Amino acid sequence: MTATIAALAGCGIHVPDGVTRHVDAAADPAGFTYCYGHGCGDQATVRLTEAQWGEVQALFAEPAADPAAERAQIAVAVARLETLAGAQAGTSGDLGGTGGGWFRTGQLDCYDEAINTSNFIAMLQGDGLLRFHRLSTPIQHGIMSGWAWPHATALIAEISGPATGLDRSVRYAVDSWFHDNGELPEVVTATAWKAGWQPASLATR
User: Fold this and answer.
1) What is the domain range of residue 69?
2) How does pLDDT run across 168-195, given as a tens digit for each residue?
3) Which of 80, 75, 67, 79 is nearest to 187 (CA)?
4) Are 95 and 101 a contacting pair, CB within 8 Å?
5) Contact of 96 with 177, CB cutoff 8 Å
């Protein structure tokens, strides 16, 4: 079991250019950079058609009644965008975690996932689709010791609503790294995530 956890938890040794450098707060569905190959070692330019972006917009057609409902919408949107981007970038076969996909063409590590998910959320935000959240700076935890290798994720901050936009200081990790391409990302509080949280389904593997 320890070896399995190590394969799932180990994201990578380092990211030469960091994560935030590749996050684009002005990412545009008509053309944006999509990272893969570990630490954004490879990049593709993904261009969504109006119809494809319309699929994403439709997920927010019914405004969320509260922050929890909007987080669910964000998760579905991230999964859909990952599917669309994967088809163009050649990463549709990306496997959850990192250990099982070392040396595979089109594999993403957690740094790639954190960057891409942040850019997806930036596009949602830029299109005015989010009412209760704003994109925040990606976070990282872990040290290169035992199985606790560094791990990064995208982050959103909950706000009180569109009328005030006041930050409630409640932040949530939006982590698509745990699962295969196009599956729903995990959305948990940043506090739990930084403490080493992982999906219960993985703990029994």
Assistant:
1) 2-203
2) 789 999 999 999 999 999 999 999 999 8
3) 75
4) yes
5) yes
